[in-house]
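Morning!

This is the sequence you dropped in the shared folder:
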Amino acid sequence: TVNPFGSETFSGKNVDPTDGTIYAVSTDIISGSLYMIDLAGPTATRIGPLTGSTCPIALAADGGGNLWSYDICSDAFYSIDKLTGAATMVGPLGFDANFGQGMSWDPDTDQLYMAAFNNATFQPELRIVDRTTGGSALVGVIGATDPGFLVQLGWMAVPASPLADFCWLSIDPVDGVI
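The structure's back. Tokens below.
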């Protein structure tokens, strides 16, 4: 068991496909942090505060090793500096994000997907994020919508190939402990 900084809880994780490094973000809604996770320890080394984002709820790494997150307080999309933890706003998401979320990069299409919860429609959604503007496009509702059953998908991953090796990192949804 590893714990994040202060009163923060882990809210997102992802593996950098360029070198296999596992990164995680945490939040307490007042501040956010970036971590490097070492499974052998296990340890979570705090790289630094997410200086531009207080409510990071998901984390993704793309094929270039770039880190991305989005914030449910600002409803904006961010690039994350993996050396310092600095978060730079790319732009608004275009919807009212809330609750637990997930994000993953698809190596076959080079698209960044979000498992999002739209607070305005009160539905879980699959979205594609534009990494140059921060805007997102709705792909569709996740789960059953009739007779109003809601599904929240807090974590997601797109496998690199059908033969990909997987590493499971479990985060408790209640207290955010790895």
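Headline: The first strand starts at residue 9 and ends at 15.

More detail when I'm at my desk.
O.
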